[in-house]
Specification:
The complex is a heterodimer of chains A (about 210) and B (about 160). With about 210 residues, chain A is mainly alpha-helical. In chain A, about 75% of the residues lie in helices and about 0% in strands. The longest helix of chain A is centred in the N-terminal third of the chain and has 33 residues, at about 1-35. The chains are: A mainly alpha (about 210), B mainly alpha (about 160). The interface of A and B includes residues 15, 38 and 50 of A.
């Protein structure tokens, strides 16, 4: 009898120990798992970044003056933040402050400028008749996207103002090849043909715009 | 006779205990496998393991948290939303869970729900700078720029 009880007690003890192992592990595991996370808990947004976001939102509501003030505060703390500088230049450009926009954009290396900023900078150079600088930017935009017809049209116009009619006509023909129904472009093209002395070709193009 | 009965009862208890252990142990094997995959960052492979554990009601809270994190890691936002909504039902006062859920709603484009969560949280923590930034971002995404500006200003300590 005593031996049977002993055996049973030993069996119960073994069962209890094996049962309790996962329970202990469970508690331990919960503690271990709590510290690990793949979701970032770093919630601290620095002041300059908050201000930068504010500057952007102010520009969305066309409160350009306030927006520029905030951009300037951001850039005083982060002068190498080219993205903010480009955004500020765009706001200045929308405000009509082209000189200031140019000054801001010229601080940024060309390769850091996005397409919108490059187009804005080219536009400013054109208004200043700095065609050589504008041409480099526009050709860069076209090389990146040959179907950027706005940039190509600007280039065609610029080349004609620079009296490089043959090159200008070539650009117009590329545009009209893809956009044959664009009458405004065709009229500009006809004008350049006229300036280059090709009067009968110009007349034929003008006739097409009246059909 | 009494001795035999006692031995049988004790043996039954021992067998039942051992069986129970094996049943739990099976879930633990799955859990260990899931954790190993999680640590190896094999998130897509780990998800079915945690899902099966959840169906077996194993370590509900921990498994739910892991699953939520994994769905976020693989950008399965709809499932992540369901998991975090479930976590929130069991822990309605957990601020971090609320913020995570608000972020999921935001990424899903449900700005109204995002803003509702931040509005609730700001009621209890009106001076929380980070919450004002999150609120401003949600309002910006929704197109409520003027309100967004107000919250940005508060976050910067420039409340007018």
């Amino acid at each position: 009898m005593k031996q049977a009880v002993k055996i049973s007690l030993i069996l119960i003890t073994i069962g209890f120990i094996t049962f309790s192992i996962p329970v202990i592990d469970r508690v331990y595991g919960q503690q271990k798992g709590a510290g690990e996370s793949i979701v970032s808990k770093d919630d601290q947004v620095p002041e300059w970044k908050t201000r930068w976001e504010l500057a952007r939102v102010l520009s969305y509501t066309k409160r350009y003056g306030e927006s520029i003030t905030e951009y300037r505060k951001v850039l005083s703390k982060k002068p190498q933040l080219y993205e903010a500088k480009i955004e500020m230049a765009k706001v200045l450009y929308w405000m009509g402050k082209k000189e200031e926009a140019l000054h801001a954009l010229e601080d940024v290396p060309i390769q850091k400028l996005d397409e919108q900023a490059q187009a804005a900078l080219a536009e400013i150079y054109i208004t200043q008749k700095r065609y050589d600088k504008a041409e480099v930017l526009l050709r860069g935009l076209i090389a990146k996207n040959p179907k950027d017809y706005r940039a190509r049209l600007k280039l065609a116009e610029l080349l004609s103002w620079d009296k490089r009619y043959k090159e200008s006509i070539a650009e117009y023909e590329i545009i009209l090849n893809d956009l044959p129904d664009d009458r405004q472009v065709r009229r500009k093209y006809a004008l350049v043909l006229m300036q280059s002395g090709r009067h009968s070709d110009a007349a034929a193009q003008l006739r097409k715009t009246l059909e | 006779m009494k001795t035999i009965t006692a031995i049988i009862v004790l043996l039954c208890i021992a067998v039942a205990t051992t069986l129970a252990y094996h049943k739990i142990q099976y879930k633990w094997i799955i859990y260990r496998e899931a954790e190993t995959l999680y640590k190896k960052k094999e998130y897509k492979k780990a998800i079915p393991y945690y899902t099966s554990l959840l169906k077996k009601s194993f370590r509900d809270h921990v498994v739910l948290s892991r699953l939520g994190e994994l769905y976020l890691a693989v950008s399965d936002l709809n499932n992540a939303r369901l998991i975090y909504e479930e976590i929130l039902r069991s822990e309605p006062l957990n601020m971090q869970t609320r913020i995570t859920l608000a972020d999921i709603y935001m990424r899903l484009g449900d700005y109204r729900k995002t803003i509702n969560i931040y509005t609730m949280l700001l009621l209890s923590q009106p001076g929380n700078r980070h919450l004002h930034i999150l609120m401003a971002r949600a309002l910006t995404a929704k197109g409520d720029f003027e309100d967004a500006i107000t919250h940005y200003r508060i976050a910067l300590g420039e409340n007018q």
